[in-house]
Design goal:
There is one protein chain. This protein has 199 residues and is of the alpha+beta class. The chain has 3 helices and 10 strands, in the order αβαβαββββββββ. The strands form 2 sheets. Strands 1, 2, 3, 4, 5, 6 and 7 form a 7-stranded mixed sheet that branches. Strands 8-9-10 form a 3-stranded antiparallel sheet, with no helix packed on it. The longest helix has 17 residues, at 2-18. The protein is globular. Bound molecules: calcium ion. Residues 114-116, 118, 122, 139-141 line the site of calcium ion.
C-alpha cells in the first residue's frame, strides 16, 4: 500500500513538473505550452530539471528542426516562435547561456539581417520563421516579450556555462515610442506590428 501511494506521488510530481510542456515522446527536447519572458523561461526549464535549448552545431539545428516538424510545433507565423538559451552578454557578444559558448560559432542560424538589436534592447535569441518563410531561423528580440520556449535534457558532456551574477539587464523596462498606449515596432522584420505595452 505504501509503495502504491509512493508511486502515485512520484507520478503526480513528475506530471506536474512536465504539464507545461507539449506531450511528446521525445526525451531530448521539450516545447512549452505557456509563454514567458526569457528569464522566467530559463527558470521554468530549470524547475523541471531541464535547460533552455542551445544549438552548437549543424546537427543540433537539424535535430531541433526535426523535433518541431515531427510534432507539428513549427510556428504558424513569425511572432509565434520559441526562446532559446542565447543571450547578449553585457560585453555585447551573444553566448548560449547553458554552455557558455558563442552563438553562431559552428552553425550560423541567424535570419537574414539578424541580429539587428532593435532599439539596442534585443538581447535574447528566439527561433522562429525566417521572415515569413517556412524555414526556421534565429532572431534577437526583446527579452521581456513572452514567448513559448524550448527546453532540453541537460547535456551530459561538453561545455557548461556559468550563470551570470545578474540577469536583470535582460528584462529591464524598455522606453519605446508610445502611440495610443501601444508600441509600434518599426523593424524591417515586422514593419508596423502593434505591441502590447511593456510593463
Ligand atoms: Ca532582431
Amino acid at each position: 500500500m505504501l509503495f502504491r501511494i509512493g508511486l502515485l506521488f512520484i507520478v503526480a510530481y513528475f506530471s506536474a513538473c512536465f504539464s507545461e510542456f507539449v506531450d511528446t515522446p521525445d526525451k531530448t527536447y521539450f516545447a512549452s505550452k505557456e509563454e514567458l519572458n526569457w528569464t522566467d523561461a530559463k527558470n521554468a526549464c530549470a524547475e523541471s530539471g531541464l535547460e533552455l535549448v542551445s544549438i552548437l552545431n549543424t546537427k543540433e539545428q537539424e535535430l531541433l528542426e526535426t523535433f518541431l516538424k515531427e510534432y507539428q510545433l513549427i510556428p504558424e507565423y513569425r511572432w509565434n516562435g520559441y526562446w532559446l538559451s542565447g543571450i547578449r552578454y553585457p560585453n555585447g557578444t551573444f553566448y548560449w547561456d547553458t554552455t557558455g559558448t558563442k552563438v553562431g560559432e559552428d552553425v550560423n542560424g541567424w535570419a537574414l539581417g539578424e541580429p539587428n538589436n532593435g532599439f539596442k534592447r534585443e538581447h535574447c535569441v528566439e527561433i522562429t520563421l525566417n521572415k515569413g518563410a517556412s524555414l526556421l531561423a534565429w532572431n534577437d528580440y526583446f527579452c521581456v516579450e513572452e514567448r513559448r520556449y524550448l527546453c532540453q535534457s541537460p547535456r551530459k558532456d561538453g561545455p557548461r556555462g556559468q550563470d551570470l551574477d545578474d540577469y536583470s539587464y535582460l528584462t529591464e523596462k524598455i522606453d519605446l515610442p508610445v502611440a495610443k498606449d501601444e508600441y509600434i515596432i518599426p523593424l524591417d522584420f515586422v514593419n508596423t506590428r502593434v505591441q502590447t505595452p511593456y510593463v
